[in-house]
Structure formats: C-alpha cells, structure tokens
C-alpha cells in the first residue's frame, strides 16, 4: 500500500512575525529565490492577500502566483509588495564577493 503525503504548508508552522523575519533572513542568506517567495507568500497570507493587493496595487490573483515557489515577480512588483507588507531589505557587502 502506497503512502500519501500532504503538501508541506509553512503557514501551519509559523506563529509569529519574529519567526517570519528569521525565515526571510534565512531565505536571503540561502540565495534561494523560491524559498524567499514562499516566505513572502506566507507573510502576505497572514496580513491578508486582499489587503496586500489593495496596498500594493498588485492584482490579488497575480499576487498569489508571484509569491509562490515558482513565482517570478519583476523588481517593481516585488518592491510594491514589500512596501505593502512593511518589509525593508537592506544591503551590505559580503566578505567574499563573487568575482
């Protein structure tokens, strides 16, 4: 008899904004775009996709698609979403830049 598994849903395990910030930082450090978009999607769902859509002026259906593991939002769209979520990324030079 084959086992069936449910798809992992990060929403079921993240309980606070501090945990989400930790995951955002971890996703950025990993350079895994899919992971980053997944975490942003979790945060957007916690804030309410309709509200984020309204604040960002990004269509709700596109927002859902863009903030998925396979999403590929443009930089302008990403900046609108981050602003609507109240998230600010900061930049710093790594100790060993890629050359």
Characterization of this structure:
- By secondary structure, the protein is mostly helical.
- Helix content is 56%, strand content 0%.
- Helix 3 crosses helix 5.
- The protein starts with 16 loop residues before the first helix and ends in a 14-residue tail after the last helix.
- The mean pLDDT is 88.
Euclidean distance between termini CA atoms: 52 Å
Reported for the largest beta sheet, the result is:
none
Number of helices: 5
The proportion of residues forming helix, as a percent range, comes to 55-70%
Query: Could you spell the SSE succession in H and E letters?
Result: HHHHH
Please state the average pLDDT score: 88
Quaternary state of this entry equals single chain
Measured by DSSP, the beta-strand proportion falls in under 5%
Number of strands: 0
Shape: globular
Which structural class is indicated by helix and strand composition? mainly alpha
CA gyration radius, whole angstroms? 15 Å
The stretches of 5 or more residues where confidence is low (pLDDT under 50) are none
Helix-strand layout with pairing:
Layout: H1 17-30, H2 33-47, H3 49-56, H4 60-66, H5 75-85
Question: What labels would you give this structure?
Answer:
single chain; 99 residues; mainly alpha; 0% strand; globular
Give a quick precis of the structure.
The chain has 99 residues and is mainly alpha-helical.
